[in-house]
Structure formats: structure tokens, C-alpha cells
Amino acid sequence: MMFPHRKKIIWIFLTLLALGLSACASVSTPTPVPTPAASSTPEPPTATPEPLALIVNGEGVTLAEFSAELARYTTAQTALGKTVDPVAAANAVTEDFIAQLLLAQAARANGFTLDAAALQSRIDSLAAQVGGAQALSQWETDHGYSEQAFRSALKRAAESAWMRDKIISTVPSTAEQVHVQQILLYNQDTAQYFLEQLNAGADFNELAFQADPLTRGDLGWAPRGYLLNLLIEEAAFSLDVDQYSDVIATDVGFHIVKILERDSNRPLSPDALLSLQELALRQWIEEQRAQASVTLAPQ
């Protein structure tokens, strides 16, 4: 996703007004103040707003919904055999809600609407898939949803999915790409020795085979934003065909990369396209989050 800063939640309180009645008294003869007749249709009490866990651009997520989602997240991670840190789990759920709200708000701003009838149609479809309305209601209960929370979550999910698809559809299916081969070593002195051999005229492919007999270090075609390390990417796109880099130190090891081919507009592989779509979505969310008004409850 996505990592949040702590901010104090804006809690909404009702203001109680003290109403007082004053009476004017005569100096000589006090005059009784008439008692107002009781209304036959008293005003219904104002409902107390539910406490909110977070607010994004004025749109909130209730503490109850957040707590239920946090419980579901923790259960899912535990089922995968992962140790769950409570703070990390709360941060992950918070960032997911923020991303969903930003996407849903953008979807509505871009003209997507999901009215009550369309939402009910989706719910009816889900009910049919799980065995009926009663089965769906039981599923909601088992997963910590109230009926209203489930409807709210489903509506938000539909809106955010629409905007997500709109964002990733802007990623072109072709891009400038380079065909990269690397020599990856795990000792700096050894990497420097390999570089000296290359500079002395050794064959890159043969040295790459010594480092990795299985693949010879062939990373295939890569567009910008696809390689895992920015230093490797910058080096790769700065080289001409048949040129190789100096030793590049990363968290993985010590690399020497060579460009085998270059294409200014090559079709993306399915994996590269998916990676660039994920990158576009992540960048969009980061940009929108930087501009958004986000208020978080203290954890």
C-alpha cells in the first residue's frame, strides 16, 4: 500500500443549551408565571454520533467498523502463520481505509454513482452466491459486520474498484525497455576482481555464467519502474548496448550490469504491465494522500 502519521481525531459532541425562564414581578402584587402547555408531539431525542476512527476529506470510518476490520486482518494474518504486531496491524488497516476512501471519493468526483437500487442488486447477487439472504446475514455476523457496516463497505469497495481500474487503464501496453544481464556477487572484493577482468577484456557472458550457471544473470527486458532497485535501473538506462556498469552495491549484493539490447517502444510482458499498473496506483494514492485532510484517532 501504503504507513501513517498519528493525528488527533476530531470528536463530534452535541452542545447542550441551558434554557432559563425569567419572570417579571410587580412590587406590590406578584403575578404568577403561566406554565407552558406540554406538547402533544415531543421532539425525538437527537441520536449521538458514533465515534470515528479516522476522517478523510470529511468522510469518516466509525470506530466499530475499524475495530471489526482490524480483527479480520489479525485473524487472516494469524491463519497464514504470521506474527501480528498490534501497531503494525492497526497501521496497515488505517492505510487501507485511507486508500479506499481516496479512491471512492475520486470515483464519485469522476461521475461514478452507485445508488441504493444498484447497491441492493449487488447484495442480492452476493446472497444468491452464498445460499440466500439468511446465509449472507450469517456471513456478515461471522465476520463482524453489522448490516449497515456491510452495505457501507460494499459501496466503498465498488467505488474504489471503479477508480482503481480507471487509474491502471492509463498505463500503456508498450514502453521503452532494455534487455539486462547482470553479474551478481556477494563479496565486494570478488565483484571488484570480476570488474577488473572485464576491463582487461574478459567475456561478460562467461563471467556471468561463473556467477550464475542457471540463468547467466539474464534479467530479460525491463521498462522503467520494473527493476527492484533504483540504482540498478538508473545504471541500466544510462548505458548503451554492449556497455557494462561499475560495481553497484545494493542490499542484495554487488552487481555489474550490461545492456544487451534496447527498444524504444516494446510491448510489456504481462508481469511488467502488472508491476507498472501497481506502481501507477501506488503513486496516485501517495499523491492524493499528500493533499488530503486526514484525521486519525489516537491508537
What count of domains describes the coordinates?
A: 2
N- and C-termini, Cα separation: 20 Å
User: Tell me, what's the shape?
Assistant: elongated
Side by side, the strands of the main sheet go 4-3-6-5
* Helix run count: 9
- CATH topology group of the largest domain: Triger factor/SurA peptide-binding fold
**What proportion of the residues form beta strands (DSSP E)?**
15-25%
Specify the oligomeric state. Answer: single chain
Give a written overview of the molecule.
By secondary structure, this protein is α+β, with helices and mostly antiparallel strands. The chain has two domains: 1-11 and 49-173 and 268-299, Porin chaperone SurA, peptide-binding domain (Triger factor/SurA peptide-binding fold), CATH 1.10.4030; 175-267, Chitinase A, domain 3. It is built from nine helices and seven strands, in the order E-E-H-H-H-H-H-E-H-H-E-H-E-E-H-E. It has a four-stranded antiparallel sheet. A three-stranded antiparallel sheet has the order 2-1-7.
